Amino acid sequence: MMDAHVRDLLSAYLDDELASDERAQVDAHLPSCADCSSLFEGLRATLAEMRALPEPEPRGADSIALRAAIARARSRPARMWGALGALGGAAAVVVAFVAFSGTPATDSPFEAALAPENSMAASTLDYDQASARALLDGYSLQGETGPAIHGAQEDATLGRGKAADEAIAWSAVLTRCEKTILEGTTDRYDRINSFAARYEGTPALFLIYSVGDPADRRELWVMSESCDVLLFEQARA
Amino acid sequence: MDVSRFEGTSDEALVSSYVGGDGRAFDAIVDRYERRVYAVALRMTGNPDDARDVTQDVFISALRSLKRFRGDSQLSTWLHRVAVNASLDLGRKRSRRKTSPLDEVHETADPSPGPDEHAEAAIRAAEVQRALAELSDEHRAVLVLHDLQQLGYPEIAEALGVPVGTIKSRIHRARAEMARKLGHLRPREPEGSEGPLTP
């Protein structure tokens, strides 16, 4: 006759995770119970098969790719005016917001972009990992489709005064941070979109790429103004 | 990149060094944990390409998060948690590729028994991996962490954010289900009869 209580303890007994009194209880019960003993044997054999699985070993290329991805995520920003040629001839340079209608007193192009006066700021959203991931998933590999960015337009005021300076400063940040992504990779990166928004409260640069030739994945890079990687997500086709 | 000076350094000290600005300490963390993270990812996702992507996600996430690491839990526990979650997230985003017996996971069994035994062991290992892939996410996670990663029940409980009692029953049910799939237990008896298990 099977003891229901002991039956439920058998895996923990096998794993040596029982307190001594419970262990003693099972020790005492097993020899006289055929059902429990056969259940125990079934569990034991299963554990043995799991333990017999060979230890997975990363493929050599995977280890290299891992370290390369880490290096890209970490590299300090290089010179400010990186060669635009690094982007690849067909890069879709979509500057998702640019028009600075107001000019708050701040030197940071990120803060300027996110200031409430700038109704053209790309996004007033404050992302977290889950919503950023959802953002990435909204982009198809075919390119420009994706969630609409509030007020994203080419800046009609480029070339005029302070707004133009800030647009240039923004473009410089984007270029600098993008360079850290592109350095050390031979993959083809086509930027699908870029915009400023908050990430967990921090003003950040959001960059979305179609990667590969042919394109086989999308990547989202969320970077601080100093080009630290705040978040990296990738989605395969 | 020479991280030999970190051999024998505790995880806690490595994290401190990294947070204190020593980038090489992070390299040492990667060297120390890459195989384990990859192992969790491979057994959770069932295929090497996904495991590669998950491994990258885990360490790039660590790059950022370690700066805020409060040390409430061990680095090892934290990495296992992130590896499981990242594997499950990847699986949810797209339907998990079905593992085919001899393709997806390249099992390398011990070659010394001889060619037939080698093939047999590799085939069986693929069957075990396939049975693992058929389990629910929760069941697969606890078996991977316990049986393969050798974590104890309390550490698994901490990694998965559930009570130890839950881990105890979850492992029991998961292992019983694996046992049925692998033929170590009879298929489940209909309700009400005296099988070895109740739901």
Structure description:
The complex is a heterodimer of chains A (237) and B (199). Chain A has helices at 4-14, 20-29, 34-52, 60-74, 109-114, 129-137, 161-182, and strands spanning 126-127, 189-199, 202-212, 215-223, 229-236. With 237 residues, chain A is of the alpha+beta class. A 5-stranded mixed sheet of chain A has the order 1-2-3-4-5, with helices on both faces. In chain A, β4 and β5 (229-236) form a beta hairpin. The longest helix of chain A has 22 residues, at 161-182. Chain B is 64% helix and 0% strand. Chain B is globular. The chains are: A alpha+beta (237), B mainly alpha (199). Chains A and B meet through α1, α3, α4 and β5 of A and α2, α3, α5, α6 and α8 of B.
Number of distinct beta strands of chain A:
5
Number of helices of chain A: 7
Radius of gyration computed on alpha carbons of chain B: 19 Å
Largest interface: A-B, 49 and 56 residues
Write the layout of secondary structure elements.
The complex is a heterodimer of chains A (237) and B (199).
Chain A: H1 4-14, H2 20-29, H3 34-52, H4 60-74, H5 109-114, E1 126-127, H6 129-137, H7 161-182, E2 189-199, E3 202-212, E4 215-223, E5 229-236
Parallel strand pairs in A: 1-2
Antiparallel strand pairs in A: 2-3, 3-4, 4-5
Chain B: H1 11-19, H2 23-45, H3 48-65, H4 75-93, H5 115-134, H6 137-148, H7 153-160, H8 164-182
Helix pairs in contact in B: 1-2, 2-3, 2-4, 2-6, 3-4, 4-7, 6-8, 7-8
